[in-house]
Every structure is written in C-alpha cells, then in structure tokens.
Specification:
Two copies of one chain form a homodimer. Chain A is an alpha+beta fold. Chain A is about 40% helix and about 10% strand. Chains A, B: Belongs to the AOR/FOR family.
C-alpha cells in the first residue's frame, strides 16, 4: 500500500529548500542506496520549487525524485505546466510515496484531504484519453499527473506527465524512468483539485512586487527569452548545433544532417504559421510565462497532432534516426506522449536498433510500428521500453550514446565538450538540463575549460531546479542571485540570500553524488562510451578528449565527497 | 582483425601459472577495466591448466577469460572435454585474441601454425551440425571450440563449446557470455589439429608416475569420486538440495519442488538404464577420467538427444521453471547446446519471464518455443539472450536471482548460505564453481561460519581452475597440496610447492577483485537481490542473513585490496 505524507512543517529541516534540493534530500536521507528501484524501499517524491505558485514568470516548475530504474542512481526530473502549480496552491511542498502495490489507484488531493480511487477505467489508455476522462470525472479545473501504458508496465523509459495550461498532458518529467517507479507504487494518476483554494500570497507583498518587477524586466530584456525562444522555440538550436557538428545524426555517429533545414526552427515556425488551426509556433506551458518556448503542432487540416515539438525531440526522434520530415517526427512525438515515455530515451533506443539494422535509418514507418509495440508490451516494445543502454546490451552494440545508463540529449559530446563533461559527471546521468554549457563563451570543440564550464553549469542548473525556475531564465538571471534571494525571501518569509541559493545547489549536488557512491557508482562511471574517445565525429573532426583526471574532479569520486 | 599470439616463452612471468591464474593475469594486465566488453580493447584468452594434458585423471580442463559482457567484470570460465587437452598437446599455453572484426573466421591451429578460414558455411547452424561439418572438413581427429547462433549475435548468455571425448560439442565454457566476446572478435570456431604431435612427457617421469599413482588412488578411495558421481552424476544433488530447501523452484521463490523425485539422480539413472541405446548414466567427458560424472540422454527409441543432463541444468531448466519431466528438460538442454548458450543463464532468464507470466510456470512447450526465437534473433529471443538480469530490467521484475548480473546456479542462497556468500562476493558473480560450500560441515541454514566457508571454497575452486583439475577432485585432494605440487613440478620441470599452489590462487582472486574495482565494482555489488533478505524461502524457513559487514571482508572492498 503506498501512503501519502503531506509535510507542512515550516520548522522542519526542509524549510528553506524546494524542488530538486528537497527531493534529493528526502531520497538521500530515506532511501537505501542499494535498494531495488522498483521495490518497496524506494520512494517517489513530488516537490514544488521555492518560487512555484508565486506568480513569478517561468517559475512554476516542480521536481520529481526517486532512485532511478534507468540509471540506478538518484534522479530528479523537472517540468513546467500547471500541475506543480496546483500542488503548490494546495499548500503541499512535498508528496512522498512509499512501498509498492500491485493494483492501480488514482490519488485525489483537495482541501478535503486525500482519497484513493480505482484506476481501472483508464488503464491501458492513451494519455490524452485518460486525461480527458480524469477531467470529466473530477472537473475541468483540476490539474493531473499521470503515467501511461509504459509506466503501468514499469518500463525504464516511462515518464510522468503533467498538464500544460490548456489541459494537454504533455509536460513531461521525462528522464530516468520515474513513470516506472510510479507504476511500481500503483500510482496511475494524481488529481489536484484546488477548488476553494485562494491565490498564494507572498509573505512580504511590497518587497515581492518590487523584486518581481525587476526579474520580469530582466526576462524581457534578454535576447533568448524575449526574442529567440518566443519565435523559434528550442528548435532554434537545430541550426546552431548542426553548424557546430553537434546535431546527433544516425545514432550519434556524426554531428550534421544533410537535410537539417527541413527540421530547423525556422522551417518549423513557417510550417506551423502556414497550417494555422491548432498549430502555433509559440505557446506558454505555464500561465503567464514570458518566454513561451513551447509550441503546438497541427496537421495540414489544422487539427491538433502533438506538442511541444522541442529541439531534443527533433534531434533524437529526427536527425538521430535520419528522419527529416516534421510530420513523421510529430507522429513519433505524439506516440511518446500517448504512451507516457521520454522522447530522448525513445530516440536513443530506436537509434541503437537502427544501428543494428533492426529498423533502417530513416524508416519512420518502421520506427512508428516498433513504438506501437510498447502499448501491448510485445517483446520489441519491451526492448525499446528498456532504454538505449539495454538495447545496446540486448543486441551487443557498442555504439550506445548513454552515460550512467541514460540517453544523451541532442548534443554530440565530441562537438560540445562541456556537455560531454556534464554527461560523464552529473549525478543525473546524461542530461543537458543537469549542466547546459552550449551558451558558454568558449571553443566547444576544444577540451580546454570544459570542466570549469560544466561545473558552473551543473551548479546553475541545480539552482533553477531548486527554485522551480525555468533554465531559460538563466541568461537573464545569472549573476543576480542576491535579488532572486530577495524574491524568495519576500515570498516564503524566510531569509534566503543569493549565497544560500548557490550553496543549496552545491549541497544538493554533493548529496546526490553521495547517494550514487553508496549505490555503487565510482569514477569508472564518470566517463562516456569508448567510441566517443576513439571514433571521430566527422562533422566536427573531433573526438571527446577531456582527460579522465579532469572528469574525476567533478564526478562521484571528487575530493570533497 | 583479430590476431593470434602463441606464447611459448618459458622464462616469462607466466611460467608457473596456468588456467584461470593465467587468463586472469593477462586480462588484468592487458585489458582496460572500463572498456566495452565487445569492443576492440577486450581480449579473449584460452589457457590450459598446469596439469592439462599430463595424463592426470580429471585434470585436462582449461580456462577461457575476458572482460564479461554479462557481469561487466573479469571472467574465467572453465570446462573439461578434449579441446583444452588438444591445445596443451600443441604446446600452446595461452591463445590471446585481440581487437574485433565483422566477419567470421575459423581459426585453424596445427604444427604448421595458424590459418584463418572462412566460417560462412557453418554460420547460423546448430552446433551439432557445425561440429560435424568441421570434423568432415578438417578430419575426425581434430578437436574444436565453437560458438553458436547466440555468440554470432553477441548475446549475453552465449557460451563457447568444446568437445567431449566422443566428439559432441557439449562441454561448455558456459558462464559470463564469453561466446559473445568470441563473436565480437569474429571467432566462429577454433580447430585444433594435433596430427604429428607426440604424447606430452613429464619433465621428471619417475617422480610424476609416483605422484600420479598416489593422486589416482585418492580419487578411487573418496566416496564422491568413486561412487556417487559415477553412479548418479551431479543429478544426485537433487535429493539433497530439495531436502535442504535449496532446490530453486519457480524462479527461486521456494526451495522444494513437489515432483522433485521425477527429476532426481535416481530417476535419471533408472530412465537412462531402461532406455539404453545412446543413453548412459555415466560418461567421462575427458579421456581416462575416473569420476565420470557426465551422462548421455537418449529418447525412448534409444536415439541420442542431449548430454550431459547435469544438476545445474535440471535445477535451472527444470524445477526453476516448474518443469518436472526429464524429456522436456532434455529438449531445453538440447536447444541450449545447439544454440551455444549457457543452461544456467537460460533457465534464469526463462524463470524471470515466467514470474512475469510471459510464459506460464511449467509450460515447457512455451519455454521451448521462446527459446527457438534465439536462433533468428527475434525480439523475445534477444530478450532471453540478454540474460536474467536484463530480463528483470526489461520487465520491471525485482525477483531476479542474479549476482553481479549473472544467474545463480541451482542452490537457493537462503538455504545454502555459504553459496550465497560466494554469489555475493566472488569476482566472478553468482557461480557455484567459484566457491562451492555445499560439502562444508556446517548448518547451511545458519549464517554462522558461512563467510569462512566461502572464503576457503573460493580459494579451493581457484586452485582447481589453475591446475586444470576438476572440482570434483576436491574431496580427494583437499589438504594434500604438497603432493600435488610434486606432481606439477615433475610435469613442468619448475619447482611448485603446495604453498605456491595456494598462494597463486589467492593472488588470482586478488587481481580479479582489483580488475573489478577498476571496472567500477564496489561493496554495493557485494550483495544479493533485496528479496533474498526480505522474503522467506518457505521450504527452509530462512532469509539470507549473513551480514553485509561480513560480506565486505570477502568481496571487492576487502582490506587487502
């Protein structure tokens, strides 16, 4: 029987931490590091960021944490949308699920407390259908989290989906197989009913208002947040990574794609504008977000197909599979959303299958057919569902773009070496949101300075995860943490300085590494697959050549652990 | 391009070591511990034991070593039959294969040297057919090693098969997926042609003869080697493990099987004697072996079906799958032999699939059909081929009877706790031949004394592996190492004392742990799956309760490493 703990104790050790700091602290303190991730001793923690629900733009994100069945280490996965916001509105800072159960329940949270309903009617359904059913049953105003058929089957690539502001269950806590952990605990869905809950009020309204205004101004002034992302979304990266030789193509064998223009942010925008109807090239996943990097992809008749079509989805489900047709990529993206699976891990798994010629590169039809086998848990579906690392082991394929068992996002580590450092050394496994260096001012092809860049980015990304703030605020906020501290202080009524914010992020990384160390990780895990060191990416003419000694100063065996 | 190194340098650092000591030394010294096991940096080493080919009974065994794709650690797998003997006759102490290649070759060794022939005609064939083809092409006098369809496909449970004295390719280096390493190096078969090679002569014939006589007398006096094994084979263990509650049943969920009498050594012997024809309840895998624990299983018409039907095969492919019909078990055994796969790992993988209801417990037909999917590499075949640990990960099943990624042989570690210690702490992963404690004089249900028993057994088993001696000699030879030292000294012409033999085994274990440590193993790997600690084996009324602190004094993090 899974149980629910609602922590509201402001005097507790958790009072000044939120988001990832909170999930990782609970996992570190309460989960035995060597336990089976799908067994009774693992815990699944949902936590709001420090600013979630405050009204600050792009800061309604939340964290889900657990021991990951994909990496075997600690995991935090972070998303936007409205579900975390609803949790915050309910005054819940962390939901902690313990133990396991065999049947599936819908967990209903409201001001009346918690109840568990039978999930039978939505088992085996596509996520869009299940979400519609939930909103019909519980009211259109509720927010939900839910897992799909993959999570029910405890597949490694299964995710937890939240809702965007239009009700689509397409905001993903994608990484690390957390949907499988939810599945093991019998959690099919969580319904958050905020009826009768008033607006969150900052503890110090005047100070909050002042700091908020400043913060919003920064967002509106920064080029990325005010112009590039609202126009082109994250797909704007296709052009830049392709020119760096970092666009993963054909199972990360090379970093450019001949037809990259077909899948670029510009083409995507043009297509969506032409199509109209449900399509829109800019869309806010969280109410009031200034950045609006998201989009909605519709077909030629104007019908809704899927959303969002992000850079990572296009890179992993597109170029990585040698698929350059946006409609084909959208169909793969749609299936991922319907089954509740991580697009990155799915693209990684399909890429390895293509390297083994189980499906041909470029064969979108084959990829779509294979993906559909996930729904009924057929053997090929199970294989894909286990993630790229295991697909490699199942087929004896050494070219597997993973680190700590998790598929790399859409940046070849030979061409953006700072991300290679992040992949190799982050406690989270390969994950761009754990230490994104693409905007660092250095030569991405050179090994010089990458360790410093990744180290800084890993701290910065943890800061956003703790605050509940979108990483796209980085350009606007970086270096202005004292004022963000003021914003937090005014909101929660506890003094939080800029230094506190930075130190909390560093402490979070430290306990994550400590957990992983207890779980059995060593410096041998702080590396990339052999082929990134040995086989040149012909687009960038580089191999990954940041030295192991340098990597080990960042990873699990670093001196301060 | 794989290459062949023939080491005959008697002055080398390898001069007083053989078998596992030699393979592990070469792997430890020459293979980067973190390399991909199927990549170019792994090596595959075949080495004869110190006494292989000397004429000593039960001592023609040999070792194959590599970094294992199944465990990720160092691996040595040991077998009898005639192939190691032939390598010894050719004067080769170790064959070392480096690098990888995409096509398959037959490696032909004779007094004329080495040649590489095209393996195309035997690719995709059953092992019996391939072995017949090889003996037709190269002569009936040759000995062979070969891999099957599983090794060609680089599956984790693929083995390397040698020949028994009747030419059947049924002597298995089964554990650790070494067939996949051979496959990655393009080695389909190795043909050993000893034409023109004289009998091996000991350096000191008189002393050798005297020591040999004594050794053979010990074998003929000891009850296990002189009576139990020749009569009932290893299947004699069914009765004793069942009475201990240690016979793995229904995916290691309980340690007794209702119908255990149907699969006991007594029933097997009676069946084979009644059937006659090809059947025989006792059979020597190596020429001149006094123990003759092997057997040949024929059908009711007297036709050859498979061999040998050993205890591990009966336990893993029988009781573990709730199959109690010897003919059904024999058919599963036959398929394993034809595809070149490890019976233990196969039974483990099928057991986990049955726990997940992909196949029903007891459904031999379903298991046979599933196994056949290995041949063409269909998805379910690939899943089984990846081994039990990965099947568990693919299906999200926490009840997986593995340690360090390798399936446990047929002894529930809750009921024979010394073997539990071996499973948890051996550098080889779960393996009874890495530290067999079943004959230790203690209460197998108690945690007391198990660490000492396992530690002693791990050293003893390494001694047999180094000498090329069958572990079934243990009862006869244990404690008489000085005289075995005389036997070795007289054979190789280098002074080897009993103490040297023991120290070499300890040194071997040490470098194996050291390799594993570099490969990333920690004390977190020196444990069994959670459920062995948490869920009682109702047959023995025990859980595994040897303390982690004690385990860590034996495993990879022990003090002397």
């Amino acid at each position: 029987m899974s149980s629910l703990a609602v922590s509201e104790d402001k005097e507790s050790k958790y009072k000044k931490i939120g988001g990832r700091a909170l999930t990782s602290k609970i996992i570190h303190d309460e989960v035995p590091a060597t336990c089976h991730p799908l067994g009774s001793k693992n815990k699944l923690v949902f936590a709001t960021g420090l600013l979630t629900g405050s009204g600050a733009s792009s800061a309604d994100r939340y964290s889900i944490g657990a021991k990951s069945p994909l990496t075997g280490g600690i995991k935090e996965s972070n998303a936007g949308g409205i579900s975390g916001l609803a949790l915050g509105k309910l005054g819940v800072r962390a939901l902690v699920f313990e133990n396991i159960r065999d049947d599936f329940k819908i967990v209903h949270l409201s001001t009346s407390g918690v109840k568990f309903d039978d999930a039978e009617p939505i088992l085996g359904k596509d996520l869009s259908e299940a979400a519609t059913w939930l909103r019909e049953k519980y009211g259109k105003h509720v927010a939900v989290w839910l897992i799909g058929v993959a999570g029910e089957q405890k597949m490694n690539l299964s995710a937890i989906a939240g809702q965007d502001k239009d009700g689509h269950p397409t905001r993903y806590n994608g990484r690390g197989g957390l949907g499988a952990v939810a599945g093991s605990k019998g959690i099919k869905a969580i319904v958050l009913d905020t009826s009768g809950v008033g607006k969150n009020r900052p503890e110090d309204r005047d100070e909050f208002k002042a700091a908020l205004k400043e913060y919003h101004n920064w967002l509106m002034e920064a080029p990325a947040t005010s112009k590039v992302f609202p126009e082109l979304g994250t797909a704007s990266l296709v052009e830049s990574t392709n020119s760096l030789g970092a666009l993963p193509t054909r199972n990360f064998s090379i970093g450019t794609m001949e037809d990259y223009k077909n899948i670029s942010g510009e083409t995507l925008r043009k297509t969506l504008l032409e199509r109209g109807g449900a399509s829109t090239p800019t869309h806010a996943c969280m109410p009031g977000c200034i950045i609006r990097c998201s989009n909605v992809f519709g077909d030629e008749e104007g019908n809704y197909v899927t959303g969002p079509m992000e850079y990572e989805n296009i890179g992993l489900l597109g170029s990585n599979l040698d698929i350059s047709d946006l409609d084909e990529i959208a169909e793969l993206n749609r299936l991922c959303n319907e089954y509740g699976i991580d697009t990155i891990e799915t693209g990684g798994a399909l890429g390895v299958l293509m390297a083994q010629n189980v499906i041909s590169f470029g064969d979108a039809e084959g990829a779509i057919a294979a993906l559909k086998e996930i729904k009924e848990g057929k053997p090929l579906g199970r294989i894909i569902g286990s993630g790229a690392e295991l697909v490699g082991k199942i087929y004896g394929e050494p070219h597997v773009p993973t680190a700590k068992g998790q598929t790399m996002p859409a940046y070849d580590p030979r061409a953006i070496k700072g991300l290679g450092v992040t992949y190799a050394t982050s406690p989270q496994g390969a994950d761009h949101t754990a230490g994104q260096t693409i905007r660092a001012q250095l030569d991405h092809h050179s090994p010089e300075g990458q360790v410093e860049a990744s180290r800084g980015a890993q701290t910065a990304n943890t800061i956003w995860d703790n605050l509940g703030m979108c990483m796209f605020s980085a350009g606007a906020v970086q270096g202005r943490f004292d004022r963000i501290g003021d914003l937090v202080t005014a909101y929660i009524g506890e003094k939080v300085t800029g230094e506190d914010i930075i130190n909390s992020a560093k402490e979070t990384l430290k306990i994550e590494h400590a957990f992983n160390k207890k779980a059995g990780f060593t410096k041998a895990d702080d590396k990339l697959a052999d082929y990134f060191y040995e086989e040149e990416n012909k687009a960038s003419n580089t191999v990954f050549d940041v030295s192991q000694e340098e990597l080990e100063t960042v990873g699990v065996d670093r001196d301060d652990l």
